[in-house]
Every structure is written in structure tokens, then in C-alpha cells.
Amino acid sequence: MKRLNLVVLASGRGSNFKAIQANIDAGRLSAEIKLVLSDHLNAPVLTLANQAQVPALALAPADYADRAGFDAALLAEICKVDCDLIVLAGYMRVLGEAFIEAAPAPIINIHPSLLPSFPGLHAQGQAVAYGVKVSGCTVHLVNHILDGGAIIAQRAVPVLPGDDEDALAARILPVEHELYSDVIQKIAEGKIRLTGQTVTILG
């Protein structure tokens, strides 16, 4: 079984990073996080990475003339390490098309809705406002369309009477943690193949 080398991009608290690293440490996930990159200098995920002895670096978008310049710097850091999979874990910047095309490995993201429903920000709030009875989370390939890449896996979560955005988000989050690691493990086992923008499920 291949041991996947991961680069994690995260903007905030790092709960998905923490869950992935915990599964690696417990021997449930055949992977190693080679680098954590953030677009926020004080993101809590950087502290979590340091505690886990995972290399971590923050790049400030304000230091670059435009998104293309920032993306190029981000890509340069990724290319310094051996990377099989780029994992977006609460990364809140839209990646440019040039970055996606030049990336040295497939890029995956997890989104807190059952795509294609409710893409973008506040997906849980969108679900509550629309009145759906089931929401959930989706792992998908990243392409130039926001939350529009090929779907890899989904898991459903009920929307309960009286839910608000925060309540639904809290119910979805632990399911995100489980699903993301499950998908990464299946990629390591060869049960999921990512080729360009094509997903092949083999088991």
C-alpha cells in the first residue's frame, strides 16, 4: 500500500488537519503530512502543526501584488516537498486556474453540504434557510469552478427541527473528519483513483 505524502492548505482552526494527523498517528491512515500552508499568519492550524512536529508555513496575501503572485509563491513551496495529494482543509481562498493546472498532485477539498447543492460560503446556513431535511458533506476534486469539481464521496447528515447554521455545522463537522480520512485512505489503497479531473472508484 502506498504511503501518501500530503500537503495541507488551511486558513483557520485546523480541525480537519487535526483529525487527519490523529488518524495517521493512530495507524488508521497510510499517509504523512509533509507540509501545512496557511494564508493567515496567526492561524491556529499553524500551532497545531508545530505541536505535531509537522512543517508549517504561512504566506500573507498582502505581500503579493495579486492572486497570481500569491498562488505562484504557494505553488513554489509545495514543489519543494514530495507531494502525492494536496488537501484543502478549511482553506478559504479560491485557487487560480493557473495554480490548479500547474499543481504537482491532485487537489481535493471537503465542503459542508451535499454538492451540487449549496456551494460557497455558509453552506449550512443555506441548507437551513432552504428547509432541506438532509444535508451532509462532500469530498471533491478542485477545479476552476467554486466547489464544482468531480465528486469523490459524500455522507449524509440529518437536518433537525430547530436547527440553525451553527447547530447543523456542529453535526456535520465530525462527519467531515471521518469522511476526509476515509477518502484519503482509499486513495492510498488504490480504491479511488484521481486522474486529471476524473474520479474512478474501484472499491
From TrEMBL:
<keyword id="KW-0658">Purine biosynthesis</keyword>
<comment type="similarity">
    <text>Belongs to the GART family.</text>
</comment>
<dbReference type="GO" id="GO:0005737">
    <property type="term" value="C:cytoplasm"/>
</dbReference>
<dbReference type="InterPro" id="IPR004607">
    <property type="entry name" value="GART"/>
</dbReference>
<protein>
    <recommendedName>
        <fullName>Phosphoribosylglycinamide formyltransferase</fullName>
        <ecNumber>2.1.2.2</ecNumber>
    </recommendedName>
</protein>
<comment type="function">
    <text>Catalyzes the transfer of a formyl group from 10-formyltetrahydrofolate to 5-phospho-ribosyl-glycinamide (GAR), producing 5-phospho-ribosyl-N-formylglycinamide (FGAR) and tetrahydrofolate.</text>
</comment>
<dbReference type="InterPro" id="IPR002376">
    <property type="entry name" value="Formyl_transf_N"/>
</dbReference>
<comment type="pathway">
    <text>Purine metabolism; IMP biosynthesis via de novo pathway; N(2)-formyl-N(1)-(5-phospho-D-ribosyl)glycinamide from N(1)-(5-phospho-D-ribosyl)glycinamide (10-formyl THF route): step 1/1.</text>
</comment>
<feature type="binding site">
    <location>
        <position position="67"/>
    </location>
    <ligand>
        <name>(6R)-10-formyltetrahydrofolate</name>
    </ligand>
</feature>
<dbReference type="Pfam" id="PF00551">
    <property type="entry name" value="Formyl_trans_N"/>
</dbReference>
<dbReference type="GO" id="GO:0004644">
    <property type="term" value="F:phosphoribosylglycinamide formyltransferase activity"/>
</dbReference>
<feature type="domain" description="Formyl transferase N-terminal">
    <location>
        <begin position="5"/>
        <end position="184"/>
    </location>
</feature>
<dbReference type="GO" id="GO:0006189">
    <property type="term" value="P:'de novo' IMP biosynthetic process"/>
</dbReference>
<feature type="active site" description="Proton donor">
    <location>
        <position position="111"/>
    </location>
</feature>
<feature type="site" description="Raises pKa of active site His">
    <location>
        <position position="147"/>
    </location>
</feature>
<feature type="binding site">
    <location>
        <begin position="14"/>
        <end position="16"/>
    </location>
    <ligand>
        <name>N(1)-(5-phospho-beta-D-ribosyl)glycinamide</name>
    </ligand>
</feature>
<keyword id="KW-0808">Transferase</keyword>
<dbReference type="InterPro" id="IPR036477">
    <property type="entry name" value="Formyl_transf_N_sf"/>
</dbReference>
<feature type="binding site">
    <location>
        <position position="109"/>
    </location>
    <ligand>
        <name>(6R)-10-formyltetrahydrofolate</name>
    </ligand>
</feature>
